[in-house]
Amino acid sequence: MTPTLEPHHIMKTRHLKHAIIAITIAASTPALVAEETPTETPKAVENEMVQPGSLTAIISDSATFSTLSKALKAAGLDMVLGNKGEFTIFAPTDEAFGKLDAEVLTKLMLPENKEKLRSLLLYHVVAGRMMAADLQEGDLKTMNGEKIKLDVKSDEIEVDGEKVFSSDVPANNGVMHSLGVVLVPKGLDGFAGLDK
């Protein structure tokens, strides 16, 4: 004869099942939360914003432009040149920045001079992708609002009288041309000893 369970036995069994399920869920919840919480959110966001193959990525990957890379980050322009859009940058090398007085560079990198640093760097950037063959004699408006003067010859290009020594380095959002000097916009004339 099969034993029958009293109603209070059935209730105890149900409570026991619910208790076991509750304990199991409680025990597994921290693990689930830990798995779902991204541990490298800033890196993920940065990688999402700075695209591989962008001007920012190319500049930061090159040992020749480490100072420019730091300056772009300090000015908050690394994300601008690291994302969508089309830009042409006349990029000063580390050697070019080395020609500036060390005090000038240090002062430019200070948070309170961020806008001045942005202005200096944007004087090297033109909207749109302009290969060497696209550059024409005359004035060209930069992204800081001032104009640079281009002198285009068959064998060389000069920007504000300074020779471009490496041109047409492609990026997925523009092109880079290298300069051996830092160009100084008129708006920064006299700042910390900068001269035009």
What would your notes on this structure say?
This protein is α+β, with helices and mostly antiparallel strands. Strand 6 and strand 7 form a beta hairpin. It folds into two domains: 29 residues; 141 residues, FAS1 domain. It has a seven-stranded mixed beta sheet with strand order 2-1-7-6-5-4-3. It is globular.
Largest pleated sheet: 7 strands, mixed
SSE string: HHHHEHHHEEEEEE
Stated plainly, the CATH topology of the largest domain is called FAS1 domain
The beta-strand count equals 7
User: Numbering strands along the chain, what is their spatial order in the largest sheet?
Assistant: 2-1-7-6-5-4-3
> What's the total helix number?
7
Question: What is the general shape?
Answer: globular
The CA-CA distance between the termini, in Å, is 107 Å
The CATH class name of the largest domain reads Mainly Beta
Structural class: alpha+beta
Whole-number mean pLDDT: 80
Low-pLDDT parts are 7-47
Q: Level of helix content?
A: 25-40%
Q: How much of the sequence is in beta strands? A: 15-25%
Kindly give the count of domains. Answer: 2
Rg estimate, integer Å: 29 Å
CATH superfamily of the largest domain: FAS1 domain
CATH-defined architecture of the largest domain: Roll
